[in-house]
Amino acid sequence: MKITPVLIVESIENSLPFWIDRMGFEKGTEVPEGGDTIGFVILSRSGAELMLQSAESVRKDAPQFAGTSGTASLFIEVDDFDDARRRLAGYPVALEERTTFYGMKEIGVREPGGHIVIFAAST
């Protein structure tokens, strides 16, 4: 079994600097939407996979999901918490850095598509 989140965003182009430049994902399959815009992209890093789909692409492909951009949350476990925290500098903090009672160090941000992304590592 494999689970891959698909985040619906208004603009894939606005989200790519966060996922690629900051978090180190690589772009794989890309589907143009028309003109200079991207409708769909697959991103991967170290065996993890994430898909981004533009709201416009969703309206055309599966209109029943239109209007759902910015509604998902991701919990991503990382090996190097300090590295993840450094990569997040400048993005809006949604969850201040904390250590949970069950031994996870966490920090959360809102990525450019509006989704909450929490990065965590065992303490």
Task: Please explain how this structure is put together.
The structure is a single chain. The chain is an alpha/beta fold and 123 residues long. It contains three helices and eight strands, in the order E-H-E-E-E-H-E-H-E-E-E. Strand 6 (93-99) and strand 7 (104-110) form a beta hairpin. The chain starts with 5 loop residues before the first strand and ends with a strand. The mean pLDDT is 91.
What is the β-strand count?
A: 8
Provide the structure class.
Answer: alpha/beta
Q: Could you name the ranges where pLDDT drops below 50 across 5 or more consecutive residues?
A: none
Q: Round the Cα radius of gyration to an integer and report it.
A: 15 Å
Q: Which of globular, elongated, flat, extended, rod-shaped describes the shape?
A: elongated
**What is the H/E string?**
EHEEEHEHEEE
What multimeric state do the chains show? Answer: single chain
